[in-house]
Write a structure and sequence with these properties.
Layout: H1 6-23, E1 48-50, E2 63-69, E3 72-74, E4 87-97, E5 99-100, E6 109-113, E7 124-130, E8 139-148
Parallel strand pairs: 5-6
Antiparallel strand pairs: 1-3, 2-7, 4-8, 6-7
Length: 150
């Protein structure tokens, strides 16, 4: 039975409220069918690289044009869970249209690609050199991005 004074009654109600809030959300039921699993270390995953298409646009005869190719590298994991540190290189695999490896190749547009971090940090610069004797039309190339390192 609660005490008759209002102070004691308020103190008793506060203690009961504290008890209710302390035990709210608990249950006497037992969890069944719960599995816990894990592993030591990580599964090794490969790094990946991707990039968007590069558009140089129209280039006048006897001029050059350029655009940046910015690769996106997603580093994989080693078996010790550390990030891999792969680096990327780029090379021109095939030419299309009026493009070639140099301007002397049948008066074609010479396409070249810089090392990573050329004019812009983290990007390759693709340069088109158009000779005055080049034909009029489209030029293009396929660039291969290669990952190396751990």
């Amino acid at each position: 039975m609660l005490a008759k004074s209002s102070k004691s009654r308020l103190a008793a109600m506060a203690l009961m409220a504290l008890g209710v809030s302390t035990f709210m959300g608990t249950s006497a039921a037992l969890a069944t069918g719960v599995d816990v699993s894990g592993s030591v270390g990580c599964t090794a995953t490969s790094s990946t690289v991707s990039a968007s298409a590069v558009v140089i646009g129209a280039v006048a005869k006897a001029a050059t044009g350029s655009a940046n190719l910015t690769p996106a590298i997603t580093q994989g994991k080693n078996t010790d869970c550390s990030d891999k540190t792969a680096t990327v290189t780029a090379s021109i695999a095939t030419f299309t249209g009026l493009a070639g490896s140099s301007v002397t190749e049948a008066n074609r547009v010479g396409l070249s690609i810089s090392d990573l971090g050329g004019a812009v940090a983290g990007a390759f610069t693709v340069t088109a050199t158009v000779p005055g004797s080049a034909g009029v039309g489209a030029f293009g190339a396929t660039v291969t991005l290669s990952l190396s390192g751990s």
